[in-house]
Amino acid sequence: MWWETGVRARAQAGLFAVFSELPRLVGAALAVSWRADRLRTLVVAATTVGAGVLAAFGLLAAQRVLVELFAGGPTADKVLAALPALVTLAAVTALRAGMATAMGYAQNGLSPKVDREVERGLFEVTTAVRLEAFDADAFADDMERASRGADSTTGLVQASMNLLAGLTGVLAVAVAVVVIHPLLLVALLVATVPNGWASLRAGHLRYQTYAAGSVRRRRLWLLHRLMAERDSAPELRSYGLRSFLLDQYDRVMGVETGIQLALARRVTTTTTVGAMIGGFATAVVYALLGVLLVEGHIPLAAAATGVIAVQSAQRSLTVVTFQMDRAYTEGQHFRDYTGFMTRAAEYLPEPRTGDVDRPVPPQPLRTVTVDAVSLRYPDRDTAAVDQVSLTIEAGQTVALVGENGSGKSTLATMIATLRTPTGGTIRYNGRSTDDWDTDALRARIAVVTQEYHKWPFTAATNIAIGDLTTTPEQDRIEAAASRAVAHSMISDLPHGYETLLDRTFAGGQDLSGGQWQRITAARGFLRDADLLIMDEPSSALDPRAEDALFQSIRDRQGHGITILITHRLANVRHADRIYVLHHGRLVEAGTHDDLLATGGRYAELFTLQAAGYDTRVPLPRQTAAAGTSAP
Ligand SMILES: Nc1ncnc2c1ncn2[C@@H]1O[C@H](COP(=O)(O)OP(=O)(O)OP(=O)(O)O)[C@@H](O)[C@H]1O
């Protein structure tokens, strides 16, 4: 699939190409760990290296013990001579155990702090990026992998530390071995490298499979949700979608199972080949030690130490390869995280280019000027809003009307500063957004969007989040609810304003579509905004509630600016100015009476709707494609 290309290209990168990135990733993860908790990072690093160095002392002490025990003379004398080395060996072993305990303790405390550091960083970015980010190619897919990558940071830090421990151990053993006999070092390498290679290759195969399956995983996750969640449950049943969705699940899982089986086969083959070569090489090493001993090139004690060294090195190298594999895999996930953070940074609000030191002083909004504003969504051939110009003065209520897809909501989100125009400018009190402090400007604007969100909080909080800049007092919340015809409905809920509006929690309640719409309108009213934008606020309301809501909206006339978007044209008759959009262009503007007199698009839509309520007039028929009425 075209959207998988980038992911596949990366997954197909060679083992060494990807591996060369590891030091940088380990560095980045350690930097995160350092930021999260310096002391614990230091303790973990110090104890890790310390334990490795002690391993070398342990090996040399063991060799000393063997040398003394294999020397000539009475046994009691030999044991006595070996005693200092034995004591050193015991002390080294005890110290290593103590260091391991300290490392475990520090690491346990470090993990939650590292988790918090990365996860918070991710949320700081996802909540700050411009809305355009969510329209960008594969942004959601990248975000899914980034959250997995955030979970990998602790794993990468741990793997890096353990890798350090393993490497120090190997290095220490190598030094000890060279001290005993340099040839043993070659023997060590021969015995351990094949297993290491196999383990790294297996890790690479696993990551390739994971990366190439990210779209499939999202699809599975979607199917899980569709089949198990409350929102989709009624339609799933009424349209009989059960077998359709189960079929899709079987198909995706069929592919997934096939891929996992193929992966298991390749990993098993690789590790088996590695183990076979490694086993053969170990046998050769032991044979070599035997020959060296028989030929008298090394004493018996050195040969015995050599056997211990090979075993110890193999243990350390197993740790190294295992941890390298882990660091590699976790590192790739962590790279998804860092890559996403870099990509998302491009969508962070740009620094203002206006007079940054002297932003517009706090002042109410008096005019909003939309000047030749356009917006084209990514990958769309035509502009959703095309060269629209209009001016709205304080106290005015204006309406944006037009057929579905004509660009009303897009224009409103630009006026609300939620989207940046791709052409033209919007000025507030004659000053561009660059001159304003964005938060201060947004605090003066309230938006009730068409696609409102049902926040899983109490009814009171659902309204209070309309203005969290001040303490949400109960009487203000209730006043806003009353203006949105929501007060008595909320009072009738089992716990009134304290009722949790999420059925997925014990004791939680759900509301009807119209009831939710009243709550969202109340949210918009709570902030006593200079500019209130209401996008289809009454599409689900009953006639009485609709009438009351529009009464509240009309009450703003003469005070604040209100921008109203609705298809119920009777409700915009009172607007000071009505703007008609068609295919993104502003095609008509005027009062209700002006526009009716002109006999254009607005008049046509209004007459069509009004005729539906006039029982004396037979219902007009219209051709759907042209959208025009015909007798
Ligand atoms: N996020 C988006 N990405 C791509 N295209 C979009 C996006 N949002 C809207 N569009 C397109 O932009 C055009 C204008 O959409 P918009 O939502 O502004 O219309 P509208 O007039 O509010 O419609 P409605 O009356 O149905 O609410 C439509 O063609 C729509 O398909």
Automatic annotation (TrEMBL):
One of its GO terms (molecular function) is ATP hydrolysis activity. Residues 42-329 form the ABC transmembrane type-1 domain. InterPro entries: AAA+_ATPase, ABC1_TM_dom, ABC1_TM_sf, ABC_transporter-like_ATP-bd, P-loop_NTPase, Type_1_exporter. This is ABC transporter related. PANTHER family: ATP-BINDING CASSETTE SUB-FAMILY B MEMBER 10, MITOCHONDRIAL (PTHR43394:SF1), ATP-DEPENDENT PERMEASE MDL1, MITOCHONDRIAL (PTHR43394). Residues 365-608 form the ABC transporter domain. GO terms for cellular component: plasma membrane. It comes from the Bacteria. Keywords: ATP-binding, Membrane, Nucleotide-binding, Transmembrane, Transmembrane helix. It comes from Salinispora tropica (strain ATCC BAA-916 / DSM 44818 / JCM 13857 / NBRC 105044 / CNB-440). Coiled coil: none annotated. Its main location: membrane. It is found in: Cell membrane. The chain crosses the membrane at residues 41-62, 82-106, 163-191, 273-294. SUPFAM superfamilies: ABC transporter transmembrane region, P-loop containing nucleoside triphosphate hydrolases. It is a multi-pass membrane protein.
